[in-house]
Design goal:
alpha+beta, two-stranded antiparallel sheet, EC 1.1.1.34, NADP, hydroxymethylglutaryl-CoA reductase (NADPH) activity, Alpha-Beta Plaits, HMG_CoA_Rdtase, 3-hydroxy-3-methylglutaryl-coenzyme A Reductase, Chain A, domain 2
């Protein structure tokens, strides 16, 4: 079998990256000139990638200023968005202008947890029920065992769901500035080992994850109980400024929101927002997030209220926004620069900057919802894509 070149002693060098590009060229006939053009020091990559051969270059556009009134940021910020979709940055830029002209967007982080979901197995449902009672009574011991594996993660609470002879649990952790999936997996494993030794009832065994943590996929459970951060972004749109900037009235936007909500229900979509994934994918790539977490994070709940004075209250709730300012790809050079330009690196008043990043992200998503809704109403959705979104 033909094997990809590897160096067991040190696989993270310029020489090994070049060797793998040469190998790929031999196998495919394609010269990987652009793939090899990267400023990343291979020595930075352990823990981020295996068998590295180069980098994917994605253009980064700049949108803003975005005016955010949060509990971690209160002011203007410019937002880097990595994308290859024409019109996307322009659209978000337009939505940010409307938000700014209407006084800015208020953002609230309601809660933030990461989960791992062990399942405990028994001979019958009563044994599972009795174990659930024991688990509540011994929460402190479970918590101590889990937290021996991490200096950052803290076990907050455990949800319980009985099914047949099984007790499904959902262990909820706070994770500091990290997203924390791996952190929680390690902590949950330590907790399960402690439980297996400490519980004297008829426990047959456990499965470390029974899938109700719904990693890398959206679920109704995440909508209700949150995974990552539950963040709410709100704005009150002024009638005159909305009409002037977006060529759409607040009444028209209220109506189109209802049309979209009804259509989404008809189609069975996972949320009633329009396109949160656009902003999230662009920000995730620019700031080094786990891009697969867009699958969970994109779920959004839009709520609008047309007020008597003609103003339009618009809120967007993201119940499962998974982001970090520490760990994963956030430490790579390009991604670190993008985080730094938004003030999302380091600490402030003894706290990390993940809250600031979450608030900026939710506000950005709301800007995109307003812009796309307005484009649909004004009839320039297709024309703008035709003008800016085609490589001629």
């Amino acid at each position: 079998m033909t094997r990809i070149p590897r160096d067991k002693e040190n696989d993270y060098t310029d020489a090994m990256m070049a060797a793998r590009r040469d190998f790929a060229t031999e196998q495919s006939g394609t010269v990987l000139h652009h793939v090899g053009q990267t400023s990343i020091d291979p020595a930075l990559l352990p823990g981020n990638i295996e068998q590295a051969m180069g980098a994917a270059q994605v253009p980064i556009g700049l949108a803003g200023p975005l005016l955010v009134h949060g509990e971690h940021i209160d002011g203007e910020v410019f937002v880097p968005m990595a994308t290859t979709e024409g019109t996307l940055v322009a659209s978000y830029n337009r939505g940010m202008r409307l938000l700014r002209e209407c006084g800015g967007v208020t953002v609230t982080i309601v809660e933030r947890y990461m989960q791992r979901a062990p399942v405990f197995h028994f001979d019958g449902a009563r044994d599972a029920r009795d174990f659930g009672v024991w688990l509540d009574a011994n929460f402190d011991g479970v918590k101590r065992a889990a937290e021996t594996t991490t200096s950052v993660g803290k076990l907050s609470h455990i949800e319980k769901y009985s099914v047949g002879a099984m007790l499904y649990t959902r262990m909820n952790f706070t994770t500091g500035d990290a997203a924390g999936q791996n952190m929680c997996g390690k902590a949950a494993f330590a907790a399960c080992q402690w439980i297996a030794e400490a519980y004297k009832g008829p426990l047959k065994g456990y499965t470390l994850s029974g899938a109700i943590d719904t990693d890398k996929k959206h679920s109704q459970l995440n909508t209700l109980h949150s995974r990552g951060a539950r963040v709410v972004a709100e704005v009150v749109l002024e009638p005159e400024k909305t009409k002037q900037l977006m060529r759409a009235t607040t009444q028209q936007l209220f109506r189109v929101r209802n049309v979209s909500h009804t259509g989404g229900m008809l189609a069975g979509t996972s949320s009633n927002g329009l396109h949160a994934a656009n902003a999230l994918a662009a920000l995730f790539i620019a700031t080094g997030q786990d891009a697969a977490n867009v699958a969970e994070s994109q779920a959004s709940i839009s709520y609008v209220d047309l007020r008597d004075d003609g103003s339009l209250y618009w809120s967007l709730t993201l119940p499962s926004l998974i982001m970090a300012t520490f760990g994963g790809g956030t430490g790579l050079p390009t991604q670190r620069e993008c985080l730094d330009m938004m003030g999302c690196v380091g600490e402030e008043n003894g706290k990390g900057m993940v809250g600031r990043l979450l608030e900026i992200t939710a506000a950005t998503v709301l800007a995109g919802e307003l812009s796309l809704s307005s484009a649909i109403v004004a009839g320039d959705w297709v024309s703008s894509h035709d003008e800016l979104g085609r490589n001629r």
